[in-house]
Amino acid sequence: MSDNSDPVNTPLANIPLAGVLGWPVAHSRSPRLHGHWLKRYGIAGHYVPLPVRPEHLAEALRSLPKLGFVGVNVTIPHKEAVLALADVVTDRAALIGAANTLILRTDGKIHADNTDGYGFIANLRQNAPNWRPDSGPAAVIGAGGAARAVVASLLDAGVPEVRIANRTRIRAEQIRSEFGARVVVYDWGQAANMLEGIATVVNATSLGMEGKGALRVPLDALSPGTLATDLVYTPLDTPFLIEARRRGCQTVDGLGMLLHQAAPGFERWFGQRPEVDDQLRAVVLA
Ligand code: ATR
To answer: Is the pTM of this model over 0.90?
Structure first.
């Protein structure tokens, strides 16, 4: 190859880059997760943390394709703001009101998707293969951004009814008005009552996380065999999951949701469907 060859066509210029946009972003486990897959599949690519202040988000996004980025994950506080900056927003991202995965297309357009709900369901399918979404109502505790993704995915999976209780009731009411009549809102003080006769229960609040308060919803009404899952994964085994298991429920921890939500982005950017397995769990937990 001669020295004046087009630099765009040199192998180095073709190494795809991806990353996670957040502020702050140092705590993110995504670089370790994607880094493991890149190594495992022998892909010449890089995945880096991208600390970007909210006021620089638009400018940073516009620059990424010029720097060789093929896509990014988006985390707090940018998940809602990127919707207004994207050229194409998937229906599920629009419904959830947030995006966590961007594809920077070769035509320069930004495609925004939300894979949190996909990750949530894929985690249950992998770790509770006997779980049937249509076997009964589901109860979701919480109505924040993560809860919206969970509710959308449960409805999509065929759950007949989704009951929601949230400290700030209006956020649950908002989900009901946007997601439709299969959503039923319970008062926060009545959250224990919504657990009667359900097949699935999800803690989608941050309660139970290390350093946060305890989830105080009594679980007496849970029947054995109900599937209980928590979006909190620090600790992996939350007091909510321990109590649910004591009552005979099947439990699935929240780490798998983080792992599975990453897979569609990795596949789109790097052309390889990655596997979520125990080795990946160990790497992310290390
Ligand atoms: P995320 O994107 O992780 O869902 P979020 O949108 O801030 O984050 O939502 C956090 C969820 O945890 C909300 O349901 C929140 O309840 P509010 O809507 O009332 O804020 C819930 N949450 C956090 N701290 C709580 C607490 N001390 N008691 C009850 N609910 C709490």
So the answer is: yes
